[in-house]
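Quick one: structure for this chain?
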Amino acid sequence: MINLLPPDIKKDYIYARKNNIIRKWIFISLIGFAGLIIITTYGIILFKTSSNNDQQQIVSLQNKLNKENINKTNSQIKNFTNTFSLVTKVLGQEILFSKLITAIGSAMPSGTALTGLSINNTSTGINLTANATSYTTATQIQVNLSDPTKNLFKNIDIISINNNGTSSVNNKYPFTVSLRALFNNNNQFLLINQGKKS
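Got it. Here's what it folds into:
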């Protein structure tokens, strides 16, 4: 097809087409720019709102920690400390009778028989009763149990020695002795001292 239009009109058509293309790009650019402004504004508003909410939560949590948790934590620590002290005290007074009786039995002199063992309220010592064949043998119990090499007791006293005569068991042990023994400071028969060297 031959274009017979005059050159001025041709130029007008060419510029008209270029103007349409430029208008389209300007319109698209304006829409894109408006979209960027909207997205940026929304992002800034969202960021500020989120930042304000976070700041309020931080202040609220700090106030809550200051009011509740410090006092509560201190109270829990105090309760734990008291409980631990109580457990330590109870374990410190718990006596292992199996080891104690074995140690006393091995220290008893020949011609004696341990008949009783009782602990008092303070748990610092025990009361012992034993039968013996003679007065000398009865006193030997105190000597053997207070021997420092055996590390049984720091002090042991004879409370009484009685001669029961014929009323004793099979007349073999006519003497009955009562003793009071105090444990060493590093009492090896306390549960808490197990594993420590005497």
